Each structure stands twice: as C-alpha cells, then as structure tokens.
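Trying the structure run again after the queue cleared.
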Amino acid sequence: MLEKVSVLMPYKPDHGVRDVLCKWVQSFYRNMMPEVEICIGECNSELFNRSLAINNAAKIATRDVFAIIDTDVVYDPQLLIDAVQLLDKHPWLIPYSKIMDLSQTSTEALLETNAQWPLPVNVECKDRFELKDHKPVGAFAVLSRANFDLVGGFDERFVGWGREDNAFRDAMNTLCGPYKRLNKYNLYHLWHPRTEAKGNPNFENNHKLYKEYAKRRGNVDEMKEWIKVRKKSGL
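Done. Tokens:
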C-alpha cells in the first residue's frame, strides 16, 4: 500500500532545531514506514515559501500518491494507510482531527529516543485549536499526483507563512471534489520556536491573493481559468 506514496516535505534548513526535527522525523519514516518515498523540497529564501518547497518536492517524487506533510509532525502510521485506501472513494483527504502541540520538554525528551510509534515517551501536549471553532486544513493532505497536477500544485505567489493551504483547499475542492476528513487520528507537532503567519511582512499580500481563490470557490470554469493564467506565468 505505502509503496505507492511519495511523502512531500517542505523544508528550510536553519542550522538549528528545525534541522534536528527534520532528521528525527525522517528516521521516523525509515523506522515505521520504510516503503514510502521521502521527498524533501527545500526553499532557502529569506521568507520561507512553503508553496515553492512543496512544488520542489513534487518535482522529485516518482510515486502516484502524494502525502504532503510538514517536517515537524508525526502520527500513527495507520493514518496514512487508511487515507491511501480511501483515495478510490474521495478525491483527497485531510487525514486528522487535531494538531497536538508537544511541549519543549517533551520534544527534547523524544529527540533522545529511537523514532517509533507508539511514541516511546509520555508526552505533554495541547490541542492547538482547543479554544477555537476551527478545523485545520494545513500540515497534512493525501491526494493523487493527478489531482495535484490538475490544480497546478501550490501557488508560489504566497510568500512567507499564511493562506497557501486555504488557496490549495479551495482549488482542490472546486476542481477535484471535496476532501474527506479522518476524525479518528491526531497529528503530533514537535516543538520549535514559532513563526506566526501574521508576523509575516507579506501576510497582507497573501490575504489579498487568497481572496482571489475564495471568490472563485465552487466555480469550476473560473477556477480553471485562474489556475491556467497562473501556470502560464510560471507560478
């Protein structure tokens, strides 16, 4: 099953904690899901362009199923198996219910262990959106390569954190069909110093760009034309 999967991981080296997390998460895949193809897409610009990094990962992928996931997240491997099995019934999946943020202490303890599932230490964590009426769509998506190509991948005009996942969601839901959420699983996000989207100096530009996707949401012809124009511009 997992031999069909390329895991696309957007990444910006920092010569620090994010590098350590990325190496540990890669070892998690090697230990627990050795069949998958790990594709690290790098972006080294001053403001991290996650869309560019994901697209770079897709360019080196050789499999027909894409699992797009951040480099600081682990989860029950059965989640990915279930998601892949459901791709014949749904155009794409958001295969988790909650993002559980690990504490710094728990993350540091975990990094001293052999990466595996179940997690080898008891961890202290908190639901990121516990006090918000919000269901996240970032961090992890499973879809076919064909559908990724149909929407033109991620829009690289989103610079710095913010709104690229929402734009991709609207494009996918409009052109490919609505996602299926798997509510039985959680993601476990390893601690690192946070960069908030609203701290991004380009956030307002990202927000304006996202509005162009939002106003085309549900309109297949308009969304197709919007993506066609973007792809002609090379983005």
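The chain has a mean pLDDT of 94. Worth checking whether this holds up in the mutant runs.
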